[in-house]
Structure formats: C-alpha cells, structure tokens
Design brief:
alpha/beta, elongated, 9 strands, 12% strand, two-stranded antiparallel ribbon, 5-stranded parallel sheet
C-alpha cells in the first residue's frame, strides 16, 4: 500500500491484505478493489445474498485502516435519514431557555411582521452545526480522516433516493441551505451493494466500477472454509463444498450461499462430524435451507445426488465393483 494513503500498490497487495483480514478473494475481485482506489471510483457490488458483498467492504476498510461508515438502505429511506436532520427537541429546549431574551428582542416591535422579522434574524443561532445531526453520508463527507462509505442494499431504496445519492457521489459535497456548501475533506472510498431486488439506473452504473460476486468455485469455497472455520477436517470440507454446489443446481426458492456453507460447517463441527452421511444431511438441512419447500425438495433429490456421486466415484475408482460403490455412497454422502 502507498505510505500514508491507505490504498494498495498492486492487485497482489489487495489479495494479500484481504487475506490477512480472512477475506479470501479471486483475482477479479482484487483487480476491481485495486482500480477503485487508483481511479477514485465507487464500486457497485452485485450478486446473490450471502456471497460476501458486505464483508468485502468491511475487509477493505480494515485492510486500509479506514473507518467504515455504513448506510443501510430500505424502502422509504430519505435524505433526512441518510444525510442530516435538525435536532428539533434541542432547538425547542434552547428556545425555552432563551425565552426571556426573545421577549427583550421583540419588546418594542409595533407589528406582528416586525416581531417575526426580528426573530428571523436569530435563525443562525438555531440553524447552525450545533443543532445539526449528521447521518452516514454527511459523516463520510466531513470526516477528518479517509473513510470507507458502505451503501448497503441500495436496490432496496426508492429510485428518487438513488437519484439523490448519485448527485452526492458525483460531487462529494452537500448544500445545507441554512449553513452553506460542505465539501469532502477526504473523498471516501465508496462501496454500494445490491441483491438485484430491482434494476438500478444506468446513470448510477456508469458512475461506478461494476463487480459481480457469484457463488465461489469449489476450490475457493474450500479455502474460505479452511480460513473461516478452523478445525474442520479436509474430508468434511470436501463433502460440504461438493454438496453445496449440487444443492445450488436445484430449483430452490433461495439457493444456499457461502454464509450458509459457513453456518453448516460450524454446526457439523459442533456435532463432532467427520464426514457427511445421508442421515446427517437430512438432520441439518434446515441450517442451510430457509424454506420448508426447499428442504423437502432437497430431501427428495438427496438420493439422486448420492447416486450421481456414486457414479462419479465408480468412474474414478475404475476397478471397484458397483456393489462397493453403492455401499460407499450410502455410508458417506459424497464418498
């Protein structure tokens, strides 16, 4: 990384630094992260839920020594919740405290209009930074040190908010009518995540580097398991990864992601499992599948999955008999 900049010198440095944060990534992810720093462009990270989009932002923040500022998006999110709002209760309290002073200011006013004008002159007292409540976007802009701004699940926000967000990300400055324009002291590194709940605008996509994180390969998922769940033996890791990849081929309402793989591994570790077998898979499917219909479908396909693995084992074994292969498949789900 550049000395003092908190950014990376190379793609290899990204892979190494994120690995030190227990985030195992491939070359594509590392390249986009590297370019985001060099080009100072936001990154729009899309992909299925649970593949590590939010974790990537957290890992980059930790690796670069930046504070993470997170804006969680939802339907109905508006500027007040994302940017700033006035602390009305505090303003009211100060009004009560300064009541006598206001009486003095308006004492010789002859008309209501004149009294209102005199009170209006005191606006700067009540609409100042003292009463301003900064929300995530303003915090990221006014931070004294470089930060990482995570706009999580931006696809859940309304198109109107997306347009507002695009304006902020274009200039990294905001205008507070009562105070003036506030510009970023340090331009934050920005990550936006999306689960594709709705199509995002072309304007936002043009502004960002695009990164799609899919389900990991078997090799990468195995490495993630080794890193995240120490204590799981190599055979169980192989079983888990192969079973997860076969389950993802089924037509499920919600396919299990890497987060479910980790949950399953921790559950099996708690059960002192050394390998998967048919009974153990059925007993723990609810850990990785979140809908009863998916569980039933997976149970119905389990026999086919085992038979498929048996055929693969038969081809690999060569000299083994069909009976031996079938027996082995029944004993271990993936062996």
């Amino acid at each position: 990384m550049h000395e003092g900049s908190g950014m990376f010198d190379s793609v290899e440095a990204v892979e190494k630094s994120l690995g030190e944060q227990s985030y195992i990534c491939d070359r594509k992810i590392a390249t986009v992260v590297f370019l985001a720093g060099r080009l100072e462009k936001p990154v729009l990270v899309e992909g299925p839920a649970g593949v590590g989009k939010t974790e990537l932002a957290k890992a980059v923040a930790a690796a670069t020594g930046r504070d993470l500022i997170r804006l969680q998006c939802y339907e109905g999110l508006d500027e007040a919740k994302a940017l700033y709002e006035w602390e009305y209760s505090k303003q009211l309290l100060y009004t009560q405290i300064l009541k006598e002073r206001f009486t003095e200011v308006m004492a010789d006013a002859t008309t209501l209009a004149e009294a209102a004008e005199r009170v209006g002159r005191e606006d700067s007292v009540f609409f100042s930074e003292h009463f301003l409540v900064a929300r995530p976007l303003l915090n990221a802009i006014t931070a004294e040190e470089p930060t990482l701004l995570l706009v999580d699940e931006v696809d859940k926000s309304d198109p109107e908010f997306e347009a507002f967000l695009l304006e902020v990300l274009s200039d990294f400055q905001v205008t507070v009518p009562e105070i003036g324009t506030i510009s970023a002291t340090h331009k934050p590194l920005v990550f936006l995540t999306s689960n594709n709940a709705r199509e995002l605008s072309d304007a936002l996509k043009r502004r960002c580097l695009h990164l799609f994180i899919d389900y990991p390969s078997e090799e990468l998922e195995g490495r993630i398991l080794e890193t995240k769940v120490p204590g799981v033996n190599a055979r169980l890791i192989q079983d888990l990864v192969r079973m997860m990849h076969r389950l993802r081929e089924l037509d499920l309402k919600k396919a299990p992601s890497i987060s479910e793989t980790l949950d399953w591994a921790r559950a099996l570790l708690a059960l002192n499992a050394k390998e998967l077998d048919e009974d153990l898979v059925k007993q723990t499917l609810n850990v990785i599948l979140k809908y009863e219909g998916d569980v039933r479908k997976a149970e119905g396909e389990l026999g086919k999955l085992l038979a498929r693995k048996a055929e693969e084992a038969k081809v690999q074994a060569g000299a083994r008999t069909p009976v031996a292969v079938a027996t082995s498949a029944k004993k271990g789900a993936l062996h």
